[in-house]
Structures
1.
Amino acid sequence: MSAWRVGMLVLVLATACAQSPAARSATPRTATGDTAGTAIAGDVTVFAAASLTDAFERIGQVFEARHPDATVRFNFAGSQRLAAQIVEGAPADVFASADARQMEAVEAANAPVTFAGNVLQIVVEPGNPRDVTELGDLGDRDITVVLAADEVPAGRYARQALDAAGVTVAPVSLETDVRAVLSKVALGEADAGIVYASDVAAAGDAVTGIAIARDHNPAAAYPAAVLEGAPNPAGGQAFLDLLTSPEGQRVLRDAGFSTP
Amino acid sequence: MTGAPEPRPVIPAGVGVLSVLAVLLLTLPLLGLASRTPWADIPQLLRDPAVLQTLRLSLVASLSALALSTVLGVPLAWLLARVEFPGRRLVRALAVLPMVLPPVVGGVALLLAFGRRGLIGQVLFDLTGWSLPFTTAGVVLAETFVAMPFLLVSVESGLRTMDRRYEEAAATLGASRWTILRTVTLPLTAPSLAGGMALCWARALGEFGATISFAGNLPGRTQTMPLAVYLELESNPPAAYLLSFVLLVISVAVLLALRDRYLGQP
């Protein structure tokens, strides 16, 4: 078993337990600790779309370096699941969704701001052994395709892309978040899937990404908001401020997102 | 149990309070579910083709898993109960491990064994072009992996506690080994077998973690009721409450069928 397969196994297990403690390593404090003097402390709970996992964990480290008394706790899952959890009363400070629709489902979301964008890519096994070059190839019955479910933003965007390209696909599985699509391809169980460009970047050598023609590629927009009734509204606002700050935007761009 | 009537026990302080808390903890979620179940919509939801498809798939997969568990589990239970062989304890430990293993870990382990790149799965895929993940057969395999130990444990304990003298008597009367098994051993262990089968079926019907990680989620092929509950909770909560309630009713029915084992003590 190669190293990346073990890595994907860890990824699968990690996504299986939705709660992920943010801070594992001590990040050196940045010089720009300008807000460190203010009273940002305690747990800051951030519910974020699965595709944001790697970028947000990095931003969480920056946040904790700036606010040593605060701890960021992430809940990564499909945005539709997070929205349902918040509607059912989950105590979150910040909701970062992969589309506007799931943000609108959350009435408690206070004036959402769009902080990042993304595009779709076809994800295939490393080196593209099945020679997939465009969306049309996914209509081939011999190619095992996995998509995100229609409720998941990535699944809805993928449907839009396939419809725009006029391609009919018979997926073998509809996954509950985009990272599950990625892991099915990385583990070699599926030949192809449709994920975000940032997911392909996060998976490194485990997969290969195939660009999708621009006129078939819906632009994903990520809104984030502090929630009314947040247990730690000041902490939530500070996290949101970091997201839209030059430093937060740089981390997002490094992770393969576009920034407004 | 028989014997002299036991003296009335004195309830230590705290035990009563903690017991009430335990009962509340276990029953409040059920009340919550019942309170949100859309009773008026039940007839309509039960005619919904999507709900019926999920129900049908769940029944087919869980009954297949039960059949596979019985065919494979009963002989192994007999072997473990009756035959001394080196490594017996190890075999028993491995066979019941899925009872305590997180099911999602079971699903990942199944992928690494039977998936397209798995130990066996790769050979199978190279030879036939066919692989188990994303198929109904994959659901049956995942459910069997998780549920068979329940049958195994129950049947083995039935075989161990039965009175062996009936078998010995049959043997001295000249009955063949097959006749003894058929006319003495199996009837005497029938209650444990039935109990084990009911538990095994209920566990297979409720399987979630191994199924979603090994077989994926596709309506009509791999989306069983627990997976549908998980997904409907996001798009159509009333349907999720109803499907949950159907699973609850089935679970209560299994418990009633097993009442002699679990509800039998006065």
Note: The first helix of chain B runs from residue 15 to 36.
2.
Amino acid sequence: MTINTDMTVRVTAITPVAEKVKRFRFERVDGQPMPVFSGGAHVVVAMRDGDLLRRNPYSLMSSPRDSRAYEISTLRVENSRGGSAFMHEKLKVGDTLVLSQPINLFPFDVRGRKHIFMAGGIGITPFIAMMDQMHREDRSFELHYAIRNRSHGAYWKDLAERYGTHRVKIYVDDEKLFIPVDNILGSQPLGTHLYVCGPSGMIDAVLAKARGAGWPDQNLHSERFLAPPPGKSFRAILKKSGKTITVGTHQSILEAVEAAGIDAPFLCRGGACGQCETGVVSCEGTLEHNDHYLEPDDKKSGRKIMICVSRLNGSEITLDL
Amino acid sequence: MNINFRQETFRGDFTFKNSPDTVRRFPFPFHEDSYMYSVNMEPHVRGAPGSAFDSLIDVDEHYVSEMQDRALVLKEDPLRCQALPHMMTSQWDTLELIMEQQAAGYPEHFTLTRDGDNWHWVNRPLGIDQKFVFGDASTLPYEPMEYITRQAQGDFCIVDQRDNNLWMDAGMVTTQADWSLDFDIGMNFMEWHGPVPLAHQIGVFERALKFLLNLQQGKPVRRLNWTMTINPRLDTSPENYPKWGPDRMTVTPENVGNKVHLRCELQSLWRLPRSNAILFVIRCYLIKMEELVTVPKWARRFPRVLRTLPPELVDYKGLTRYRQTTIDWLSKFDDGAPTSPGIFPD
């Protein structure tokens, strides 16, 4: 186990996988092994795009025990803030990037008697690593994977071949094949855990059905990476560091803070982990809470904000930073 | 660094003592002249050469004798080592971590050679030479956690992370300050800290739990905790209370120096890679009062800490019966001069 944290890596392969989906392979520049990890983990990829330093989280999809390289797959998003456009259009084999250590905010419950994965689109990636680990550990699992059409869907053929069609079920929107969520939820043995990853609407719908069918919260798991939504530009006064910065339309508060040379804590950069919780001293305007972390009371109080995804609709905010 | 391993006992005739070099590397837990609970965690990175922080899994002159004492405890009470069935992956993570750290820190004493999953472990101080297959428990004489923690100083708990909480689901606990793994196994973080006074009210455990849930791979953290023990006894367990509880009545002004020990726990917490569990290492260090006063800064500071300790902590740590006698004895070594910040000797 290494004690140093960030790892400089070289892009050693870029492989088109499906329409708008590419796979990227990273190997360490210093020749050291990549740390092994647990299925469901992500890394934060730091990339220099001109003057901009971008940091985006991506689920690891390579085998968790393979210490030669990490692999991620990304979808080219149309109205992207630039992260996926950078990965798809600017990044070349041979370029270097900096990766964080693996972080797992979507672990599976090791006590589970059976594990059901429901994936929508690019939400498949964490499950690829999880299934690799579970297959090796001889755990019971099945995958229900919804794709738009067979040319958009990534890895569906490989996964069905590797784990068998009894464990990997593919549903194609364009062919009017949809995940029979009610049937699946209604017929599971005690001790089954459900994992959902995909578009927010899909996650909400599946979790609501599961709760309605009497599934305990402890058996329901989901992961969604929110991209920081855009909004109007505003001023942020950082009380502790005595700086005033401007948060741009397509910038999160966290990104603006980092651009000003101030270190703020973060882990997921997607509003889930709680690491970037920041005190709000005062604000002129309305807080737009976009995270999944703060309790409703905290959001109402107006005294806390998750600066990775949430912002201000107004003119000025003073932060305890 | 070659270590001269002492032959000594932590029971019966209590021949344990620290050599002068080991006294100076004692992880003294007080950075100022008073003490209160706090979330006092810092990165667990290598510290000054020769200190207890020199290697991230510390091995010292007591290693061989401590391992012999652990074997005696386990022989009498096998329930000191337990692992729930879902913890097997985290057991292997633990074995890897300890072997890697001991081999890296003390190459003259430990060697780990790996060829894929075929591993070869050599532990010279204990005379062990073991070839095994990583991931196949049938190739080791014990389950992986028990195997490696019979060869590592300190107690080890592996806590599983789920439902936004941490669960005490495996451990090797034989050098504990009056708590029981057999009692706590399966409990969550809030449950097993239930008995601690004052800290709940100031929100220490909520903050500590939040912090630990986000503990990152490759970034271990540490904190120091402490209590006091009469006679250099490692196994002060609730199960054995009748053997050590009465010792607290035996302290007199004449025997304080040799009988009363400051007990420090160097606790380190590590995110485990394959299981996403957390390894919690509780490494116990003992020092006699007569050894402690050979460091003038500590001799001044410790009586001041004891004098100002909140009464709830005095009771919880079990110091009530001998605290005053100890302060009286130590005060001879406190000339009232100011002490320098930090824990290290001047």
Note: The CA atoms of residues 11 and 26 of chain A lie 5 Å apart.
3.
Amino acid sequence: MLKALHSTLLCDIANHATATPDKIALVEGDNRITYAQLVSRIEACALFMQSLGLQVGDRVLLSAQKEKEFIYVYFAAHLLGVVNVVVDSAAPRERLDYIVNIVKPAACFGETGVVAGCHIIPFAEIPLDDCCEAHLKSPRLQATDVADVMFTTGTTGAPKGVCLSHDNISGSASNTNGFIGTKTDDIEALALPLSHSFGLGRLRCVLSVGATLVLVSNFANLKSFFTVLEKEQVTGFGMVPAAWQYIKRFSGRRIAKFADQLRYIEIGSAAMPVEDKRLLMELFPKTRLCMHYGLTEASRALFSEFHANAANLESIGRPASSLVDVQICGEDGQRLNNDVDGELCVRGNMVCRSYYLDKDNEEAFYGDWFRTGDWGHRDENGNFYLTGRKKELINVGGEKVSPAAIEEAIMSLGVKDCACVAVNDPNGVLGEVPKAYLVKGETPIEINEVKSRLAQLLPPHEIPVEWEWIECIPRTSSGKIQRLKLKQ
Amino acid sequence: MESRVKEIIARVLNVDLSKITDTLSSGDIPEWDSVGNLAIISTIEQELDVEFPLEDLFDLTSVESIVQEVTKLLHA
């Protein structure tokens, strides 16, 4: 049986395979994979990766497709000390090329597209026959070694690689399971994308506790999602607030018929209006409605359960566990008093130790406190509240979008100048959406043409929803865009 | 009308028109996620000047069902 003392997650999964080998770990369509099969396939995959010559510390690009093979490769890499760089293969080519240039992967798994000089292995070509574990080398690894590098949106437009160690990801799973109360007999539907910290985190939570994970492509087809809830007797799922807006709009109150079977719903990645929290409480009176505040760098730092915190629904919660500290800091990094606004800073077992590139670590921490870039305060009872954001990212339905990246793409189309800011989604679904302010250049160009050409450069959620021509973009004397002036 | 609806779906999802078959459903391809579905519905409403009744949205899960709904609305 698999030995990986550096990875609490792998040890947990191996223990489930020993204690309950026939328990279903994964459901993918009609395929059902037991814990014994899961471990055996992780080992087979690790053996295959070893045969490719992959070494401890090598990076592999892993396409976040919602398939069981993704999970085998993901954990096999952890077993060997190979670092997963999990990417959304549908991301713009430029973004993937940027990531490849930085991490220089030794191999690519899944549909990553062509990567120069790199061995690409489609999931279907991974041999998963039973393997002899004796052939697997057992490298000496530490829990603090990097397990995954997740790229998040940076404020300058270039993605930042967040280095998460084995103890970071198991710490986050343990904190989250402790708060939500996920148990071995739970069955969770995973409709969140695996390329994000939230979805990947749910996967780890479910498997570490020995529960069953049902892979669902996404929330787009709610008829199909509800069929899965019924057929698999699902007891929990995770969603972003935009998914809830979507569920409400496309299915009304139909989901309430599952209220008795759903033990928990985890919500996160963006703010949720209080009226939506109240509606969820009404529709799910017995379900644990757990909303987290966190970032890829500090996954699930705070938690709030709506029913338990009904008098305080504006709060983003309290620290997820006794192993997590959150404090409000002033500009000098000093802790501020209660009720005073400052920057939320986090330290704890799940907080990353560094970014992949040294330059991204500058000003990222106050000592061992990670600076979130979000502003807020703490009340005398220990509840935290968000009041603003220092970083200029736009949160489109949970997807963080850099205005600088959109501006760069628009400028490449012949516009003289432009600036993007967050505005409320006019459709009331995504929370925030980008708005672009444009200044005409010498060559005339219509907004419709900018929009259609932008579709070739940016993913759909990054394309501005509102557009406005203006005379000039307000800038500081150093040339920095004054976005607040535009918002006003 | 069928070809117009399919052209809109392909354009909104930024995928090749050949992928937009009658039986293709939301969630079948990564591009057709909930954000993509919202964009399809709003673009069809804008460009074809129709308004999908809220109670019908739950059943609009495939290319075929969207084409049928648009045809019904345009002839109502």
Note: The longest helix of chain A spans residues 35-51.
4.
Amino acid sequence: MSDTKVKPKAAESQPPQPRELLKLDCDRQLMVARFSSCGRMLIAGGYDASIRRWDLGGEKPVEVDRVAGHRGWVSWLEVQPAGELVFSVDTWGRLQATRGIAGKPELAWHHDEAHDGWIRSLSVSDDGQVVVTAGRDGAVRVWSAADGKLLHEVKDHPGEVYAVAIHPDKTNLVTGDLFGVLRRFELPGGKQVGESIVEKMHYYERIQDVGGLRLLRFHDKGRTLICAGGEPLKTGRAISIPTIHWLDWPDLKIKHTARLGAQNHGFVFDLAWHPDGFWAVVTSGQPGSGQFLLLKPGQEKPFFNSTKMSNCHSLAVHGDGRIVVTASNRNSQGNGAVRDKMGKYVANYSPLHLFSAPGAEEKPKAG
Amino acid sequence: MSHCRSWEHDWSRRRMLGVLAAGSVGAGGVGAAGLGGLLQPAMADELARNDKQILLIWLDGGMSQLESWDPKPNTPFGGPFRSIPTTLPGIHVSELMPKLARQMKRLAVVRSMKTEDANHSSGVPKIMRGHPRNRGVPYPFFGSAVAKLMGPTASGLPPYVWVKPGNGGFISKHAGFLGARYGALALGDGKPPPNLVRPDSISSDADRVRQELRKKFNRQFADRRQGAFNEANSYVYDVAQILMKHVELFDEKQLKETDRQRYGTHDLGRHMLLARRLIEAGVRFVQVTSYGWDTHGDNFNSHASRMPKVDQSVSALIEDLFDRGLDERVLVVVMAEFGRTPRINGSVGRDHWPNAWSVAMTGCGIRTGTVVGETLPDGTDVKTTPYDIGHMFHTWFSAVGLDSAKAQYTNGTQPLPIAHDDMHKVDELLS
């Protein structure tokens, strides 16, 4: 037997990790959070039909007046790239554009019945000129960002449209429906020019269709389409493997897939490209199984995975690299009638967790 | 062993078999839905006039009251959906039920259900048994109770048929202390028991010989076993014999395409359409079960997918019952073991909630166009008089002509009330 000693390997360098800077309380549950284009305001929408705002300009973040107008849950919002508008949609069919979100907000325009019911998805073109919405009513509509004028309409999807994205060159839009079907449409005109089924992103059992295709994003100047959500395995509960596919555009062929956890981890709820060159992703599934992940392009294993937050529902990347994650409060599950000391039935809420940019402590601070 | 008392049904097993013989005479010419060919004219008339029937639609796991009968839009626990007006002025239901909204004048809804058990394993039997006072014996499920108390209709068809997804068989445990023969004949995926139809390779004469041989073996088997067990065992064979005379019930080719589309081609639609045909053919108690309503996660997407199928199939059934005049003698109940929490959990789901939930019903003298009870504005509790499932059992028994305040089972020498003795029928629900 050889007595040659094995030289220990040099410790592999640990990829930079984010660390939690602070937690903001929010007394209601949130569906989506974003930073204003100027970076000063953290904005979020959720179950209380308002747009919540936190001013990050001072020593401590301070919640300021809410933006009203919505009636159902604020299901999605996006900030106009290089613009002053914030677009938001709700589950009762309203689309609105708000100006001055970082100061004194005012309604720029709105449509109370942009869709019949739940608007599932909202996408803004890279140049900020066009807004696309899709909903339970099976319709997809393209709006002028400047004045809210309806530009194009694609009706009669056979199922609910869960996700929509507009190509950076604005000549195409792509939809993903309840049944895991991707459809490519030309603009203007709305002629369907392509279709592809994303396998495993739909499940049917016991009279329930579970849609797994929940997010669509273009990346890499429109050469890649990202299709995210989950591969559902059961009905009635969020039993699904969070999954992201990267597809070639316009062929709609899958070129890379990452499955981010086990069947209890559910679905990818949100994702964003970080300027340092990786994907930030949040997932929510079974109670307490939330994940906040950082994933390098082309890899299947995240280099950072925080499971400390109960169920993560949204994230946003600030211009300076910080990341905010909305989650649900812990102990939010169960059949009992949980009441507070005053005997009031307790609702759940969504704390917002603000993380540093990965490795930020090693970087010289700007300014 | 349990016995019927004098106030209980007149349909002894002997009479039932006698009816079978009558039915077999006319079965050759019977249509899929008609009664007339099954029965002697006098019996058909009697059935049409007096024989009440029940159809229970069971949404197993717990449908959300907030996404169905008792929406609370734009409140902290209201969920994402809108409410819509119904044919009842001032009454709204979830936007997921547009067809049932149009049928509300034909329905009664109790919004003030408050029951005790938040667990499936113990809650389902409690609700199915009407949550009687504990007397140390397992009470029968609703279907078994009706099978015992009312027996088969004049059609002679099995009195308790359960249309369910998955496997079928004879489910004796539903019968509780009544004895196995009052169990449910379960039709897995709405299919008849396998090998129901006599193969062409066996002649009717050969089949008759086989049946005689079976009876002989049964007698030998019975000599060594308890009476109740034997009766149940023999009963299952009798049921098979009865069903063999009604194979047309399971022949989907006889269905109208318009009916298929109206009810839906999904499991629930197919099963509801079969349930209507079973009721029309004279089954006393039909239960249709839909599984998978335990929406602890992804509740709103789940209900967005499920509710339209309930809306479609239940509204089609109600349309048909009323259009055909069957509402006068068929009680329809739509319920589950509980509702779902107002609180929305981190999995975007709702958990179990027996504290304030809803049940819908119609037919058989139920006062239609009625909404009984009210929940708090945020849906967290019942605001008006709460009703337990025991109140519903009294009400439903009354609707089908049973006086639940007087009627009793007998378990050996032990008299047992058929519904909770501290509860009563809800007069508001009865016309």
Note: Chain A has a mean pLDDT of 92.
